[in-house]
Amino acid sequence: MVGLDISSSSIKLVELARTRKGYALKALAHVALPREAIVENSIMDTTAVQQALLDAVEIGRPSTRNVAVALAGNAVIVKAVQMPVASELELEGRIEFEADQHIPFSMDEVYLDFQILGPSREDEGSMDVLLVACKREVVDDLQIVLHDAGLELKLVDCAVFALENAAEITSEHRLVPNPDTVSPEDAEVHALIHLGATMMHVNITINGVSAFVRDHGFGADQLTKEIQEAHGIGFDEAERMKKERFSDVSPEAVEAFYAGLVAEIQRALDYYSATQPEYAVNKMLISGGGALIPGIADELQGRVGIDTVVLNPFEQVEIDPKRFDADAIMREGPLYTIATGLALRSFDQ
Description:
Elements (H helix, E strand, L loop, with lengths): L1 E5 L3 E9 L4 E10 L5 E2 L2 E2 L2 H15 L5 E6 L4 E9 L3 H15 L7 E10 L6 E10 H13 L3 E7 H9 L21 E7 L4 E7 L2 E8 L4 H11 L3 H10 L6 H25 L7 E5 L8 H9 L3 E3 L6 E2 L7 H7 L4 H7 L6
Parallel strand pairs: 1-6, 3-16, 6-10, 11-14, 14-15
Antiparallel strand pairs: 1-2, 2-3, 4-5, 7-9, 8-9, 11-12, 12-13
Helix pairs in contact: 4-10, 5-6, 5-7, 7-8
């Protein structure tokens, strides 16, 4: 199965193979989308998106046309709830009734799924269950565009969970054995932050288990807009300056961007702290196109006061230098985090 990260700015394609040591890269592509082709999960320019998908397949040449995609923002609702302990089979029979109490849409308007997270920390006789509802309209529209591009939609994930999945194969973020035996003081509490063009995905994990997820309507395009305003240039030229001549960018534009970004991150941390006050975040891992902004990890560490690193999903993935430009791929690795997390779903048991 191929991981396809279809964002507002581009399409990222990743296919992996399992090896004795872990994983190897099989296919990779990155194709830009015209601005406004996708707005808030809605496909506005079907022709442009379909062509970008065809181009991604042509460039990447994956071995399969089966794909996994991720949804985020207003297209998906994720809610953790407490329910009486039950088997997965028993839960299937009553999950729709439970979801109806928590999801602000008619059950006819969504595709519904759930995952049992484990025993509740707050109530001995209960378990924590994750409810996920995706808007049918968004999924169905996406399925049509993929089909018309010769691709078959096999799996729909949430971007925040694809992010977590990709992080788990790196040295920076590992699942902790027997997490329930670890005290709050010794816990590994990581804020996974994926900064895309127009959206930021946040997944805070406690000892490798997701405890809080949130999407924010803030992305690296905000820096482009600050550059536009500061330098009096068009969006495309500002984007080039951001990527190719960052040292020439006005300090005022950079400061305005970081002020907004830190405010959004702090808002997420505050929401999380209200639900898990005893488990303080002790590490932030930044990915996405925004992670390629020079010096972003140091800036955020200094401003937020939490140890911060850039998350590269290809850190421990084998990349054949005869087939790929390994150095370029490693430099741009954070861009492919969501697509990598989706590609890893091929190996789920």
